[in-house]
Write a structure and sequence with these properties.
The protein is mostly helical and 64 residues long. Helix content is 41%, strand content 9%. The protein has a two-stranded antiparallel sheet. The longest helix has 14 residues, at 3-16. It starts with a helix and ends with a strand.
Length: 64
């Protein structure tokens, strides 16, 4: 998984849980940081494609 694919996962997750409605067209690293923040994820772990997404409430599984 690439950084871009992980970023897309974060965007989908944030939209699904209702913390955002759309994604602004800002640079990818700022967007990733903002998404991780609203989802309660820690950076840089949220961007590591080899690590699972884990929030304060537990592990997140993203089904395509």
């Amino acid at each position: 998984m690439t950084f871009q694919e992980r970023l897309e996962e974060l965007e989908v997750l944030a939209i699904r849980v209702g913390v955002i409605h759309k994604v602004d067209n800002i640079d990818p690293y700022s967007r990733a940081s903002a998404l991780a923040d609203v989802l309660g994820l820690a950076l840089p772990d949220a961007l590591d494609p080899d690590l699972p997404l884990i929030t304060r409430r537990g592990r997140i599984e993203i089904n395509p």
